[in-house]
Amino acid sequence: MTGDDSVRNVDGAAPPVVLKLGGSLITEKGRPETLDDAALSAACDAVADALAAGAADRLVVVHGGGSFGHHHASEHGVSTTDGTRDAEAVAAIHGAMKRLNAHVLERLRERGVPAVPVHPLSLAARADGADGGLDLPLGSTVTLLGEGLVPVLHGDGVATAGDGVTVVSGDELVVELATGLGARRVGVCSTVPGVLDGAGDVISEIDEFAAVADALGASDATDVSGGMAAKVRELLALDAPAYVFGADGLAPFLRGEDAGTRID
């Protein structure tokens, strides 16, 4: 991971908040390249309101692939573990993610959020193959934060030694950003109100994966990045408190309150 202390708080400001908007939240995952307009607009409203109120003055946003990236990745047989050297496949996946990113940026900027894109395919790499760690340089993100902008990253293709291009999930990016930037809080906004147990109730807190492994299932729509189990595993690796919550938990999270499931 990118945990270099030289990256942390380089401009002397407070550590940022890292927020992920799940692809299943902002798109209709069963319909290729289809936005969930109402959900995306509501999420952008919450971000804009929090920034206007000074509740989240330094914010990095990550969004998932939803029906944009996941659809094309699945069609071409590309995942976090299976890569491709087909330039057309890479272009299809990355192009879809850039289109979704453009929608998210447009909605945020319409509300006065100074959102700018950061595309992982242009920055990141796996030098040791699909099973290796992600090298995600953070210089541009740190500088954008220091200039008062809101960097918006997204799930994407990533150059992978020996495997061409594989998928980097939004959840993995969240972990890299939170670690490398020394985030003070991490939020993952999804279509569910938190991590659910076998009875469908929200688990209030998770501090080890084994305690909830049996309750976590795979996504019920096309998802090449691992579903809720992968989210929990990756968030448990963080030093900062992380929260998984639904749309109703986004505003409270941005205000600094608990929301959904705390993962610590």
Structure description:
- The chain has eight helices and eleven strands.
- 34% of the residues lie in helices and 17% in strands.
- The two termini are 18 Å apart.
- With 264 residues, the chain is of the alpha/beta class.
Brief synopsis:
The protein has 264 residues and is α/β, with parallel strands linked by helices. The chain is 34% helix and 17% strand.
Write the layout of secondary structure elements.
Blueprint: E1 17-21, H1 23-26, H2 37-52, E2 59-63, H3 66-75, H4 87-110, E3 115-117, E4 125-126, H5 139-146, E5 150-154, E6 156-160, E7 164-168, H6 170-181, E8 185-189, E9 205-206, H7 227-236, E10 242-245, H8 250-254, E11 261-263
Parallel strand pairs: 1-2, 1-8, 2-5, 3-5, 4-6, 8-10, 9-11
Antiparallel strand pairs: 6-7, 10-11
Helix pairs in contact: 3-4, 6-7
Give a quick set of tags describing it.
about 260 residues, Carbamate kinase, eight-stranded mixed sheet, three-stranded mixed sheet, 11 strands, about 35% helix
Q: In the CATH scheme, what's the topology name?
A: Carbamate kinase
- Give the N-terminus to C-terminus distance in angstroms: 18 Å
- Please provide the ordered H/E string of secondary-structure elements: EHHEHHEEHEEEHEEHEHE
Radius of gyration: 17 Å
Per CATH, the superfamily is Acetylglutamate kinase-like
Shape: globular
What does the average pLDDT come to? 91
CATH architectural group: 3-Layer(aba) Sandwich
